[in-house]
Amino acid sequence: MNPHFVPYAYGDRADITIIDLDHTLPMLRRAAKVVRAVTAQGGTVVFVGTRPDLRPVVRKAAERVGPRSYHVGERWLPGTLTNKIQVLSHDPYSDERVVPDLIVFLNPTHNFPALRECAQQHVPTIGVIDSNVDPRVVMYPIPANDESTRTAELIAGVLSVAGREGVALAQ
């Protein structure tokens, strides 16, 4: 267990860390408020889940939020945020904003290069943080099991519904 995860752990049993759901629920609510606020202001949200079982989850979450939401289900291409001119073939003189306003990571352990780029570009991040991950790697951690597809579906569902509510508020 990561030493910084200790406040979110209920205890250990048979060398398995039990996550305290009394911490998970308020942090999930806070993350939902952030997603709602970003989409209410017309911001873009990107859902990232790069395991094969998470691809349909992130696709459905992005579809649920609407046209200002995107998903990354394959591998995060390094330089997507920090070297966007070469990666995206983007004209640097264009007025279009390419950097998203918020990124939600369903499996942050496999996406440390993306987390590093988000920190460099000052993009807020939400992440499902398991006991083996430092919760400080994302701005808004949600302590939960990041290996469970069901957990990812639940969290992505709550966050995408909050995003859809934000879009409705904006209209």
TrEMBL record:
Instruction: Give the matching Pfam families.
Output: Ribosomal_S2
One Gene Ontology MF term = structural constituent of ribosome
Gene Ontology biological-process annotations: translation
The record's GO CC annotations read:
mitochondrial small ribosomal subunit
Q: What CDD domains would the database entry show?
A: RPS2 (cd01425)
What the entry lists under InterPro entries is as follows: Ribosomal_uS2 (IPR001865), Ribosomal_uS2_bac/mit/plastid (IPR005706), Ribosomal_uS2_flav_dom_sf (IPR023591)
Q: Which family does it belong to?
A: Belongs to the universal ribosomal protein uS2 family.
| Database matches in PANTHER family | 30S RIBOSOMAL PROTEIN S2 PROKARYOTIC AND ORGANELLAR, SMALL RIBOSOMAL SUBUNIT PROTEIN US2M
**Protein name in UniProt:** Ribosomal protein S2
